[in-house]
Amino acid sequence: MNNIEILPLIVDLIGSFFRSSRDALERSRCAQTNNNIQEPTGLNIFPHCHAETQAAIESVVFSFLTIEATINYLFFNEQQNRLLKGLEKWLQQKWKRNLSVYDRFLLLVNQYSTTTLDDFQHLSSLFAEFISFRNRIVHAMPEQYHALVEPSPIENEVLVHDVEPVQNREQFPISRLSGEIGRINCEDAKRSFEIMILIICFLDEQFIAEFEFPWVGSKGEQKYMRPRDIVTSMPIRFYPKLQVEQFVPEHIKKIKNAQQVKQGDGE
After folding, report:
1. Exposed/middle/buried for 191, CB within 10 Å: 0-12, 13-18, 19+?
2. Is pLDDT at 251 greater than 80 in this prediction?
3. Do residues 225 and 213 make contact, with C-beta atoms less than 8 angstroms apart?
């Protein structure tokens, strides 16, 4: 055993969480496609909806975990070779237990990148709504409805024709995620996945992390792709207002310079 040396080895779960979210999303899509029953109430509590809903919830949770693991990895990476003092030392002490995921996101970007989230209000709002949506799932509380029903030919069963929630829940006007846990479906998984890949794409560009994830290319082959390439390859976008070119720091500088010139001309 010659030339033995000790090298640093960092283990994270970003890739595992991403693959779990991607695979669960595909299962939810397949279940939705194979379900020939049109549910008049839109609720996901009936047996013919279970496969789609279970996979959708799994995908949503793993999308969130992918974002959280990415934020923690980038913070860890930034602090590795720094002499910690002041705010950075405080952050190291508080990071794991005393800061919410959104707070960590804000502090990571503001402390270690060349931009601020003031320039990306739409992205920040999407993430804030996604966090609330995820919390509604993992801290699920019962929801009550008034149901319009009639007797079913099957004993001890009724036919449910329509429902109305007893209490209005907080809605998500920007992300358009489901406002009720009883209506979570494949579309929520798709929206959550896009929010996840947009957040990671933004962080990837700010920190030059060069993340790569397994994705199916245009010809059906699976290969490792950068987050920005995954976003541009998606056939359907729920949030087209956010383009990956906006996340590139050079592009951000050009926008700021143009704004400063415009302000100077107006004075």
Report:
1. buried
2. no
3. yes
